[in-house]
Structure formats: C-alpha cells, structure tokens
Amino acid sequence: xxxxVEDKIMTLREAAKLVLSGAHISLGGFTIQRHPMAFVHxxxxxKRRNLHFYGHSPGGDLDMLIGAGCVKRVELAYEADEAxxxxxxxxxxxxxxxxxxxxxxxxxGMVQRFAAGAMGIPxxxxxxxxxxxxxxxxxxxxxxxxxxxxxxxxxxxxxxxxTGDKIILLPAIQTDVTIIHAQVVDxxxxxxxxxxxxGDEQQAKCAKKLIVTCEEIVEPEELREYPEHNLIPFFxxxxxxxxxxxxxxxxCYRYYDYDPEFLRMYHKKAKNDGAFKEFLNDYIFxxxxxxxxxxxxxxxxxxxxxxxxxxxxxxxxxxxx
Amino acid sequence: xxxxxxxxxxxxxxxxVAAAREIRDGEVVFAGTGLxxxxxxxxxxxxxxxxVIVFEAxxxxxxxxxxxxxxxxxxxxxxxxxxxxxxxxxxTILQRGFIDVGFLSGAxxxxxxxINATCIGDYRRPKVRFPGSGGSGDIACLSKRTIIIAVxxxxxxxxxxxxxxxxxWIDGPGGRERAGLKWGGPVAVLTxxxxxxxNEKTKRxxxxxxxxxxxxxxxxxxxxxDLDVSRAKQTEPPTxxxxxxxxxxxxxxxxxxxxAEE
Lengths: 321, 262
Known about the structure:
By secondary structure, chain A is of the alpha/beta class. Helices cover 31% and strands 18% of the residues of chain A. In chain A, strand 2 (51-54), helix 4 (60-67) and strand 3 form a beta-alpha-beta unit. In chain A, helix 4 packs across helix 5. By secondary structure, chain B is of the alpha/beta class. In chain B, 23% of the residues lie in helices and 18% in strands. Chain B has 7 helices and 14 strands. Chain B has helices at 11-21, 35-45, 86-95, 136-142, 175-179, 216-221, 240-250; strands at 28-30, 52-54, 59-60, 82-83, 101-105, 108-109, 115-116, 119-120, 128-129, 145-150, 186-191, 194-198, 205-210, 233-234. Chain B has an 8-stranded mixed β-sheet with strand order 2-1-5-10-11-12-13-14, sandwiched between helices. Chain B has a two-stranded antiparallel ribbon with strand order 3-4. In chain B, helix 1 (11-21) crosses helix 2 (35-45) and helix 2 crosses helix 7. At the A-B interface, helix 5, helix 6 and helix 8 of A face helix 3, strand 9, helix 4 and helix 5 of B.
C-alpha cells in the first residue's frame, strides 16, 4: 500500500475540515437509512455555516443541520422521517420563518440531476413533473440564481428536437463534497454498499470530493474478489473514516436497524426551540466524539437491540410500535 | 361463495381493504409508507397474490415479512428480485411505463384529483410547509393509474389546491395531454368516509360509495367542492378473512393499525 493511499484514512475531525463554510454538499441515505450521522454531528460541532444542500429525501441529517444553523439553501424533494415524522420539524420552521432558501423538485428529478453531474453532461431530459407547479414556481431569487455555482434556471421545458414531445430539461448538479455512509470500504477506497443504494451512487459520482464513512475497512483483496458487488472505484474517494454505528439513529442494512425510541425522542424535542437546543447540547456539543455519543444513547445494551439479523438484514424483534 | 363480513373493525382497516381491492393480480404496484403498504401487503395475501411491489428507494418485488416504516426500510429488501436505487427504479421502471398502479397521498386534494404535498399559501412565503413531493409527483405523472388515499375534511378537499405537487386530471378533460403527459391519472380516492371516483367526461370527482355508518350527505358536507353523490352505494364491508390477515399477517406489531382510532 502506498503512503498516498494510507492518507485517505482519517478521523471524523480531519474529514469534516474538507467541508468549508459555504460549500455545496450532499449526504447519502434515504429518510430512515444510511445517513452519515456521525459526520453530520462533527459538522455541527465544527460550526460550519452557509452550506448549500442538495438532496432527494433526506431525514434527520438535514433537519439537524438546519436546526443547528449550518444551512443557507436547500434543493430537495422531501424532508421527513416517514412513519416517525411527516415533516422535519426544523426544516418546517426554517421554511415558514424564511430562515433558509429552498427550491423543490421531485425525487426522480433530483436523482436525475445528480446523474447528469455524475455523467459530466449539463442537463438531463425527463417526462416527470409535467403538469405540476414544481415546474411553474421558483423558490430561489434572481440574485441567488446569479451565483455562478447555482444553475441560472430551475429547469427548462422544451419540445423534443426528435419527437416534438414536451419535455423537461433539468440542470446537472456537481457537489463540492458528497458524504455517504457505506457498510464496507477497503483501505484504497473501493466502496461496497449492501441493500438499496438509494441515490448514493449518483450523489457520490457527481462530487468533486467524496468522503465515505463506513462500518468496516477491509483489505482490498476482499472487495476485489467480487468486483461486481462494488459501487464506487477507489480513485473517486478522497477520504475514508471508519465509524461503527455511524448512521445511528438510522438503519444500516445488514448491520443495524433504526432506533425507534431515539427517533421519537428527537422528533418530540425538535418541535420546540428550547428542547431542540437541549438535544444539540446533550448529544452533539456535550460529547467530544462518536464513541461518547454511542455511550450516551445507551451503549452496548442499546446497540444490541438494534443489531441486524444476519439473514434478514434488520432486527426482527425490535420494538417499533 | 358466501362472503362473511367482519364486524367491529377500525376505519383504517376498512381503508386498507379498499386499497387492496384496487390492485389486480399480476400488476406492478408502487407503494408508499402507511396505508398503501398495508393495502399492497394485504392484496398479496388475498386478491392479488402475484402483484409485484416496488419501492422507489430501490427494492423491486420484495416479499415483506415485517411492515416497513419507510420505503427505504431494510425490511423492503427481504427476498427482493433486485436491490437498486431511485435512479434505476424511477427511470427504467416508472418512466418506462411499467408501473400499473401507484398510490398517492397529500395534504390537499382537489376536484380533479390534483394533490398538494408542498405548501399552503404563497410558495415563497408559505403559511404552512409540508414535506414536499418525494416520489409522489413522479408517481402521479408516470404511473398507468393512481389511487389517492386521504383524510376527508372540507379544508383538505378544496375546489383547487394551492400548489399542484402531483398532477391528477389537472384542469379537466385533456389536461394531462396538454401538459405533455402520455398516460395515467387518478382513478379512485379512498377516504375515511368513502370511495370517490372520477366522471369519465368531466374528470371531476364523484362519490362512488360511502362507508358503512356514513351518510352521503355527510361526505358532501366534508367536501370543499360540489360533490355528485347521486351514484353512491354503500362500500362493501371488509370480510372476516381480510381483517384477520391484516391483523395477524400484515401488521401484527400494530405499527399503523394500533395507533389508529376505532
């Protein structure tokens, strides 16, 4: 292994420094699974500000970042934890209070934008969103759109040059930094994700810099024995951080389940300004790192209840109701 | 065969049964969290054993053993045919025209079946913000037909929604074609009061059936637009078998069924 390769493995604290205030970022995962939560906590602890966030269906990852004052703008399709919360409480407050700027697309729309960025093309044609107000109403102001890092238009509706059909063109996204949480990465950076990859592939591949937090770091030979199971080639990865249970309170297929008790507690607190501050102080500012956080949430005793059944990939006896 | 109807069921159970009955055997179904999942899982145990359940987050044709709490739940992976992601499911299955029936919900539904899941008031300065489209706008545009699930309240059923997140028949006959949509549109709205369908000529919602114990007048009063109730009959009640499967096989943990009111 060359020293250059070894350099990719770093601590959360070091990796979070790759995200500057004002950066355009995206986080992997989908509502209640595989968000890089340990990384989100570190960004909050390091008081990153004015982030421009791109997502399809984020959950508490974005909600916490917004609540902690890290986010200036969002382009997304959805913000909720589904059965645990119909809307992210801090997102709702920030929009209704005009504290952030927002632009809505659909989930398909957003992943197509990431895909276009990943392919290095400026736009992607689609049939979705036709007939909706998503294509008629814009959230960003003209001033925001004049920023060279932001597409000058939300989208364009044209007639297809080949068929004449009405079709929508969506602008590509290339993030400054994308952060995903994977199950397994090797020391060079090859990424393997078990289960659905959500939009992680497109979000990761459209990034200028890619940070991967993971449950395990293994030898390259182990992943290269079955290359067809790997999602991202090593040279696209800039930083690797090993963080077991790094997606808590969200699930990580085949490793652990979501934490219903913690999620219900979070959503109860996040509805109230004071209680949300308490949450930040108790679980983020009040602990120095992820290990201390895991102790705080109940340590091994709690984590054992979340541990996934090897065959099913989740915890079938988890108390959820 | 004589059907044995259930007594003493919850409204949510009746709605799940109504959702299941909309699914035909062998169809490819796009299901969301909550009632659509209950309905699709029930359908697999009853009238549509060969229906294919697809989740936008990436699970294709899973065999659910435990009720998911998200379309991205690890539970949706169980015995799936393929595990992929949003880009693949939306583009090669949905946009390509392989979803027979999609389920939708939202905060407001109007007379033409347009859905608002985005906001109340001005888009740039909303009074109330909702979670947003998610996949709902995509499902509404690109499924061959859609079923809407909603709570029946006057304010949730206005003549026109504040914001069209997920287009229904848009402004009436020809609305979808004019917008550039090739197919699709809502065929039913399942609520806690009844089942509504769309007039073939006008594309406006009418009351097709009212649930046992509900009067057509009550449905009319809880709708914000003029609702035709002249064709309404009573909804066929759930059978004993359907309720038993719902409680014992679909949601034995009581994740959605227990919380709901009687």
